[in-house]
Amino acid sequence: MLLLGCSLTVLILLFPVGSGTTVYDSYNEFTQEDDTPQLDYNNPYWCHSLGLTNGEVTCHSPRGRAYKSTLGTRCEMNCDRGYRLLGRRSIQCLANRRWSGTAYCRKMRCHVLPLIPHGRYSCTQGFVVDSRCDFNCDPGYRIEGEHSRTCQHGGSWSGVQPACSDTDPPKIKCPPSRLKVAEPGKLTARVTWDPPAATDTADKSLDVILVGQEPGTDFKEGLHIIRYKVYDQARNRAACKFIVRVEVRRCSELPAPLHGYLSCSSDENNYGAACEYHCDGGYERRGVSSRVCQFNRNWSEGPAECTPMEIKSDVKTASALLDQFYEKRRLLIVSAPNISDPDYQLQNIMTQKSDCGLDLRHVTVIELLGSPPRETGRIKESQLSSEVIEGLRQVFRISRSYFSMVLLDKLGLDRERFITPMGSDELYSYIDSFLLDEEERERLELHRDFCD
């Protein structure tokens, strides 16, 4: 159309839509615009074909299922398992031949699993979905809880984190059992050993506890059980034991000599013990003075004997006679007017019956009978001289006119006088109570049945 005016001419141009347009301005200039596509619902490829890596696109077109990118087609985006959709889940093919949005699938991951103390894990596919991580513990530890965890579709791990607990007890080995022989003259033996060392898979330093006697000390005769125990930090326990045996080598029991006794060191018959021979008063030792128990369990030397002392009755003075008994024997001096004196006769019978008991009590009987010139003195069958008889009567004031008895101790002191016959029991009782020392009483008790 053409319009005319008087002073201004205006040109208006009209173009069909969709053929490309120019915009007119007052200065007669124009610019090129984008082509606007002609809408065509029959074009099967109005928008570009969709593809979703690691996912699936499901489209619904007005033209049917076969048309997936025609104008107006709507498509749903879904990612494969293990992937998460980022962007718009539903998009549509628009008139401008573009889709209404974009989307892509990103691989889903679980967080990195923390390490467990004293353990480790290995995973099949790292930390992505469906990856399984298996847990293992160091030697000496055991899994408590789940043995594996799986990365789930939501990005979280299945189960809970396990732990490694110390279940392996420590290891300890005791030294071998041992036998020690007691030292000579002793009933003990010093025993030493190296304390055992303990090892553990978890703990490097362990305290070993001793139950029993310390090494390097003296052990008594017999068996001694030595135990060691150890605990790790998880209170797992280990223990071991061994035996220390101390042997005291012994000889057979050494018998005391008849009319004598032994004094032994240590325990009397153990290895190294020495036994000395002692004879009762009025007896003399014949043989070795001592014997020693040897390692081979035999006594050294041969046994000694106690034989009656030799009394010299042919001495000339009473003091010479008494000196032979000093600190060795007691004396019972029996005096009577004559051998037919009734008191003497009775006492003689009782003395003969008590001879063994008097000998056990270290008593020697001296008889003084009659008056000069037929006076006699004797010790058993040995006759005394008249000078000795007179000396004894003078020293101890013994009368010839009546029966009497004088009891002397081992020092030659007058301890008791009797003017009537004394039975053996009465005489024994007095001697046991007032003249015997403690050691003599003990030995007498051991030989009390000897005279029977």
UniProtKB/TrEMBL annotation:
Organism name: Parambassis ranga (Indian glassy fish)
Principal localisation: other
Domain Sushi: 57-107, 108-166, 249-308
SUPFAM superfamilies, alphabetized: Complement control module/SCR domain
Residue ranges constituting the HYR domain according to the UniProt record: 165-248
Protein name: Sushi repeat-containing protein SRPX2
S-S bonds: 137-164, 279-306
CDD domains membership: CCP
Keywords: Angiogenesis, Cell adhesion, Cytoplasm, Disulfide bond, Repeat, Secreted, Signal, Sushi, Synapse
A Pfam family of this chain: HYR
GO BP annotations listed: angiogenesis; cell-cell adhesion; positive regulation of cell migration involved in sprouting angiogenesis; positive regulation of synapse assembly
Any one GO molecular function term: signaling receptor binding
Domain of life: Eukaryota
